[in-house]
Amino acid sequence: MSLSVKDAPGPPGTIAADQMWELRLYVAGKSAKSLAAFANVRRLCEEHLAGRYTLVVIDLVETPQLAAGEQIFAIPTLVRTLPEPIRRVVGDLSNTEKALVGLQLRPRLKLMTEARP
Amino acid sequence: MSQPNLTPEASADRSLPKSRTGIEGLDEITGGGLPTGRPTLVCGTAGCGKSLLAIEFVVRGALIYGEPGVIMAFEERPEEISENVRSLGFDLDDLIARKQLVMDYVHVERDEIEETGEYDLEGLFVRLGYAIDSIGAKRVVLDTVEALFSGLSNHDILRAELRRLFRFLKDKGVTSIITSERGEGELTRHGLEEYVSDCVILLDHRVEHQLSTRRLRIVKYRGSVHGADEYPFIIDEHGFSVLPITSLGIDHHASASGERVSSGVPEIDNMLGGEGFFRGTTVLVSGTAGTGKTSLAASFARATCGAGERCLYLAFEESANQLTRNMRSIGIDLDPWIKQGLLRVHATRPSLSGLEAHLVQMHKLVKHFKPAAVIVDPISNLMAGASLLSTTSMLVRLVDFLKSQNVTAYFLSLTGHGANVEQTEVHVSSLVDTWMLVRDVELANRRTRALCVLKSRGMAHSADIRAFALTDRGVVVGAPFGEGENGGGPKRSALAYA
Question: What is the nearest CA distance from A76 to chain B, expressed in angstroms?
Answer without folding.
Answer: 6
